[in-house]
Amino acid sequence: MKNYLRILVVVLFSSGLISIIHSCKKEKVPTEEPEIPSVETYEVTGIEALQAVGTVGLIYDGGSNILERGVCWSTESNPTIDNEFCSLGIGAGADVNSCKMTGLNEETKYFVRAFARNSVGIGYGNEVSFTTKSQYHAVPHIIYTTADGLVDNWVYEIAIDAKGNKWFGTHAGVSKFDDTSWTTYTTANGLADNNIHAISVDAQDNKWFGTNGGVSKFDGTTWTTYTVVNGLASDTVTAIAIDAQGNKWFGTRGKVSKFDGTSWTIYTSDDLAGYSVAAIAIDDQGNKWIGTENGVSKFDDTNWTTYNFYYGVAIDKVTAIAIDAQGNKWFGSIRGVSKFDGTNWTHYNTSNGLVNDNVTEIAIDSLGNKWFGTYRHNYDGAVSKFDGTNWTTYNSLDGASQTIEAIAADGSNNIWLACNGLVWYHGSSFGYEGFGVSKLIFGSK
After folding, report:
1. Which of 105, 134, 176, 211 has the most neighbouring CB atoms within 10 Å?
2. Alpha-carbon gap, residue 420 to 432, rounded angstroms
3. Which residues contact 127 (CB under 8 A, 6 or more apart)?
4. Where do the CATH 2.130.10.10 domains begin and end in the chain?
5. Is 38-131 a CATH 2.60.40.10 domain?
6. Counting Cβ atoms within 10 Å, is residue 237 exposed (0-12), middle (13-18) or buried (19+)?
7. Are 151 and 161 in contact (CB under 8 A)?
8. SS3 (DSSP) at 13
9. Residue 381 pLDDT more than 80?
10. CA-CA distance, 281 to 194, in Å (whole number)?
11. 3-class SS at 308?
12. How does residue 23 score in pLDDT terms, banded at 50, 70 and 90?
């Protein structure tokens, strides 16, 4: 009987132990081994003579963190990172990224593949190809200087009136060019000051000039000057815009002045995003968009709204504004271009095809092309044209020299550029110099 009990206890204990051991044993969970990433190579954009923009699209990270992604290229098929490549660095963010391919040769066919690297290895995408442009397919152009009749080679502003006359503001007065003859206007004729910062033309074909000495209006015969004595907020006028009602809006240091032809209204820095007004544009709804060093102010005649780096603009310092036929606002800054459709912001910079992120001026031609003038870049100024899909760069070979101070498109869609910049003298010193006006001929001469 005792032996039977011992056997029973042992059996029960053993069964319990087995049960306990079985209950403590972890189930083996099947796991997938990481693999190399999958990527897609997008078509190459921003194709120039010596550079282009490649884009990588991440399809699958392979179950492991992406350590690097980019595009590689070669003149031979199936390039790898053993050839030339541009990288977006460790953990670069969105599913689609672009980087600039530089050091290319002109008129050369290249093969491109996107790549991404994780802990397992490198995955390559499909192959695309493109051919670089020639450096010497220069756009026909004409350069006008003091030798032709321009009052000074240092040009700050360009405007074109309803008759097609071109008005050039310099630091030595104003030049009018009717495509044949030149006429010069200075303080001797009635201009408030010879240093011109802004020009605008109203519906009656009056020309308004912003200077260091106030605003001058020219009706073709008579000059009228307005200063702080008359009601202008400051005599240094840096921007001018005219609304549908004919009101003139003048940007100055820390203030904006509105002039209805009789009365003046002043808006101060308490209303504006910043102190220094660089640009003013007015949309079809009558909203005023004012660019400053601290962002953009929108004024609907009642309320002020500020847009800055935290609310969509690429960077606070806004240097230029243009509004297209669809009502999109384009803001130039020292960090590229920001487009605002009223809801969404889109940013463009050198990774998209813009030649230089430091944008100085914007113009839109009758075909809807956007033209972006940039600051002197690698000893050569340049202009980027964006047609909504493709970017094209024009440089000194096309007549775009040094820093582009102003851009205007005429009725034939020829582009007029004010070119100034920094020049080295004898390899040992430097100074600033004006290079006159360039006309890039795309339409009739």
Report:
1. 211
2. 8
3. 41, 77, 78, 79, 111, 112, 113
4. 141-440
5. yes
6. buried
7. no
8. helix
9. no
10. 24
11. coil
12. very low
- Identity of the highest mean pLDDT range in 114-128, 310-324, 365-379, 386-400: 114-128
| The predicted structure's pLDDT at residue 269 | 78
CB contact at 8 A, 101 and 108? no
Element at 21 (helix H, strand E)? helix 2-24
Instruction: State which H helix or E strand residue 20 sits in.
Output: helix 2-24
- Would you say 322 and 339 are in contact if contact means Cβ atoms under 8 Å apart? no
Inter-residue contact 415 to 397 (CB < 8 Å): no
Cβ-contact 272, 297 below 8 angstroms: yes
Residue 358's identity, in one-letter code, is N
**What's the fold here for domain 141-440?**
Methylamine Dehydrogenase; Chain H (2.130.10)
DSSP letter (8 states) at residue 49: S
Other Cβ atoms closer than 10 A to 315:
18
DSSP string, 203-264: TT--EEEEETTEEEEE-SS-EEEE-TTTT-S-S-EEEEEE-TT--EEEEEBS-EEEE-SS-E
Cα(6)–Cα(1) distance, integer angstroms: 9
Answer yes or no: is pLDDT of 289 > 50. Answer: yes
pLDDT of 135 > 70? The answer is no
Q: In whole angstroms, what is the distance from residue 365 CA to residue 174 CA?
A: 24
In this predicted model, what pLDDT tens digit does every residue of 59-100 receive, in sequence order? 999 999 999 999 999 999 999 999 999 988 665 456 788 888
Residues of the chain with CATH 2.60.40.10: 38-131
Q: Which residue has the higher pLDDT, 160 or 29?
A: 160
Exposure string of 272-284, with b = 16+ CB inside 10 Å and e = fewer, is bbbebbbbbbbbe
Residue 147 tokens read as: 């030798």
Which DSSP state fits 380? B
The residue with tokens 């998209």 is 352
- DSSP line for 108-145: -EEEEEEEEE-SS-EEEEEEEEEEPPPTT-PPPEEEE-
Q: With 70 as the cut, is the pLDDT of residue 30 above it?
A: no
In whole angstroms, give the CA distance from residue 96 to residue 58: 6
Q: How far apart are CA 2 and CA 13, in angstroms?
A: 16
